Amino acid sequence: MSEAVGMVGRAAGVLRALAELDTDGARTADVARAVDLPRPTVHRVLTALLDEGLVDRVQETGRWHLGPELFVLGAAAARRYDVAQVAHPTVRRLAEVTGESAFFSVRRGEDTVCLLREDGDFPIRSHVLTEGSRFPLGVVSAGLALLAHLPDREVEDYLARVDLVPSYGRPHATEPLRQRIATTRTDGYATNPGLNVEGSWGLAAAVFDRAGRPSWALTLTGIESRFAQPRRAELGALLLREAHALTGRLSAGPSAAAPPR
C-alpha cells in the first residue's frame, strides 16, 4: 500500500511540475529537477502517464506536455470545482478599473495556485504570477493573505515546519514572515513589496468559503511606482470590497461546498 501511495504522490508531483513548466514543453531533466527525483525515475513516471494519456510527448523535441486526458478529467470536475467561472468577471473588472494585472488563486494544501490572470491597460507587466504558478503559503501576496487568515494554531504549526529561506530568501524567514502576517491582519489585505522580483509589488485579499476558511485570493500586481501611498491603500480597499462580494457569490453556489485539499 505504501509503495502504491508513493507512486501516486510521485505522479502527482510530476504533473504539477509539468503544469508549471509547460510553456513550450519540458525536458525530462527539467521535470526531474523540479520534483527533486532521479531522472530515470521521472522518465518511468512520465512514460506511465503517457500510456494513460495524462501527458503527451513531441517526438521531434522529446519535450513533455500535459495530455488530453487531463482536459477530459478537468471538464468533468469543472461542474463542481470551477470557481474560476464565478471569479472571472471580478478579476476582469479589477484589471480594467486599476490598469494593473489581476489574478485569482486557490489554496491547495499548503500552496497557492494561480487560476486566472487578466492584464489591465498599463503597458508594463509583472510576470511573477501566471496561470498555473504555484507558491507555498507566505510567498507572494496571495499566499501571505491566505496564511494570515488561518487560525493562529495552524499558522504557528506551518511556520515551525516550513523553511522558505533556501528557495525564497531571508525576507521569508520566520520572524519577518510573522511580522508581515501581523500587518496583513491589521490592514485586512497583504502587501508584497517586491520580495520575489525587485520592483514588482503585489496586493492580495483573501476570499472565504462557506465555513469561513480562506480558500482563494484576489491579487493585483504592478511596478513599485504605481503602488505608493495613498494609491496602495485605495487598491487594498478595492480588493477587500471585491473579495467580500466574491465570498458571497461563491458561498451561494455549489462550488463553495468543495474545500481546498
Automatic annotation (TrEMBL):
GO-annotated biological processes: negative regulation of DNA-templated transcription
Keyword Transcription regulation included in the entry's annotation: yes
Keywords: DNA-binding, Transcription, Transcription regulation
GO molecular function: DNA binding; DNA-binding transcription factor activity
Classification via InterPro entries: GAF-like_dom_sf, HTH_MetabolicPath_Reg, Tscrpt_reg_IclR_C, Tscrpt_reg_IclR_N, WH-like_DNA-bd_sf, WH_DNA-bd_sf
Signal peptide range in chain numbering: none
SUPFAM superfamilies, sorted: GAF domain-like (SSF55781), Winged helix' DNA-binding domain (SSF46785)
Keyword Thylakoid: no
Domain HTH iclR-type: 5-68
Domain IclR-ED: from-to ranges: 69-252
The protein's name in its UniProt record: DNA-binding IclR family transcriptional regulator
Taxon lineage: Bacteria, Bacillati, Actinomycetota, Actinomycetes, Propionibacteriales
